[in-house]
Structures are given as structure tokens and as C-alpha cells.
């Protein structure tokens, strides 16, 4: 994991959180459906079924927003790293290369190589 880029890690963590959130949403929906099954009158059953439907829709929408946000953050990080690498490459290409100076001995004469 030390070699992995941060954008890959962001996406992996977002995927795990998305699965956990969808699991919680489904559990909440199932709870409302179980309450609807136990309800005595038809109006209460219909109301609880509708609550289950809305709970699932809202939870799924929140999970999608979270996933999109994580994807945007990962894309932004990857783009920034590409820009930084390109700038570094451009700077190193633009910098003049110095030729090594000839070494001199104590008397000031240059040494042969």
C-alpha cells in the first residue's frame, strides 16, 4: 500500500464506505418494511412502506454523492501530481547543464583525466 498512489487509496476507501452506507440504508429499509408487516391497519402499512421507499432513495442518493465526491477528490489529486511532475520535468529540461570544471592541483595546474 506504500507504493500505491493516493488517488487509488481514496477510491478504494470510498468504495468500502459506499458498501457500508448502502448496507445501512438497506437495513433501515428492511426495518420499516418489517414494521409495515406488523401494522394493524392499511393506512399504517402504506405509510411505513412509503417511509421505507423514501429512506432507501435518500440513502442511495447520499451514497452516490459521497462516491462522486471521492472520485472528484481522487481525480484532482492525480491531476495535481501529473502537473507537478510535468513542471519538474520542464524545469530540469530548461535548466542549463553545467560542464564539470577541470580539477586543479595545488599549484593551480589542471589535472589530466
Question: How would you describe this protein?
Answer:
The protein has helices at 6-38, 42-94. It is mainly alpha-helical and 113 residues long.
Compose a concise summary of this entry.
The protein is an all-alpha fold and 113 residues long.
Average of pLDDT = 87
Query: What is the makeup of the main sheet?
Result: none
Low-confidence stretches: none
What is the percent of helical residues?
over 70%
Number of helices: 2
- Tell me the fraction of residues in β-strands, as a range: under 5%
Gyration radius (Cα, Å) is 31 Å
Helix and strand element order? HH
Structural class: mainly alpha
Between the first and last Cα atoms, what is the distance in angstroms?
47 Å
Task: Estimate the global geometry from the Cα principal axes.
Answer: rod-shaped
- Work out the number of β strands: 0
Properties at a glance:
mainly alpha, 2 helices, 113 residues, 76% helix
Which secondary structure elements does this structure contain, and how are they paired or packed?
Blueprint lengths: L5 H33 L3 H53 L19
Helix pairs in contact: 1-2
Amino acid at each position: 500500500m506504500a507504493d500505491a498512489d493516493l488517488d487509488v487509496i481514496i477510491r478504494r476507501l470510498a468504495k468500502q464506505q459506499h458498501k457500508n452506507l448502502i448496507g445501512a440504508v438497506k437495513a433501515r429499509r428492511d426495518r420499516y418494511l418489517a414494521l409495515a408487516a406488523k401494522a394493524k391497519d392499511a393506512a399504517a402499512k402504506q405509510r411505513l412502506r412509503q417511509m421505507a421507499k423514501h429512506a432507501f432513495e435518500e440513502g442511495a442518493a447520499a451514497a452516490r454523492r459521497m462516491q462522486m465526491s471521492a472520485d472528484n477528490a481522487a481525480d484532482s489529486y492525480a491531476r495535481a501530481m501529473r502537473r507537478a511532475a510535468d513542471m519538474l520535468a520542464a524545469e530540469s529540461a530548461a535548466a542549463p547543464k553545467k560542464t564539470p570544471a577541470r580539477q586543479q592541483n595545488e599549484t593551480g595546474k589542471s589535472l589530466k583525466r
